[in-house]
Amino acid sequence: MKPTKRTMEFEQVKTDDFLAGSIEEVQYDQEHTFGKGGKFEKVAPATRLKFKLDGYSFPHYSRWLTFSYHEKSVLLNKYLIPLVEGAKADFDFEMDLLTGMRIKTLWVEKNGYQNIETIRPEKNKLLSETQF
């Protein structure tokens, strides 16, 4: 006898329009393993955002990002600059302030995975010194 094959089902999101929602949680992994094609690359602190999208049952996530605010980081350029007023390389910012922020997201599908292409605040950018 063989066990039944496991199937993973994911809730797909619309990819042709902005979806409203909120940042439900900021998650951290101090020793995340980043790799490419199954090949080990590096272990480094990482972060990702957990989203609650309006009209969807399950949470959706950004990919794991190197936890760094350097000038070429994806975290800074793709997420913080669009969401936080005055965001710039190596600025002093507490990521947990993003929790609860209302956002609009645009998703793309590539190689069977859905990822965020664009993220914007629903109304105003977050002031880096205060909570919205």
Describe this structure in words.
This protein has 132 residues and is mainly β. It has one domain. It is 8% helix and 45% strand. It has one helix and eight strands. The strands form two sheets. Strands 1, 2, 3, 4, 6 and 7 form a six-stranded antiparallel β-sheet that branches. A two-stranded parallel ribbon has the order 5-8. The longest helix has 10 residues. The mean pLDDT is 90.
Descriptive tags:
mainly beta, two-stranded parallel sheet, 45% strand, 8% helix, single chain, 6-stranded antiparallel sheet, 132 residues, 8 strands
Task: Please provide a brief summary of the model.
The protein is mainly β and 132 residues long. The chain has one helix spanning 74-83, and strands spanning 19-36, 39-53, 60-61, 65-66, 84-85, 102-110, 113-121, 126-127.
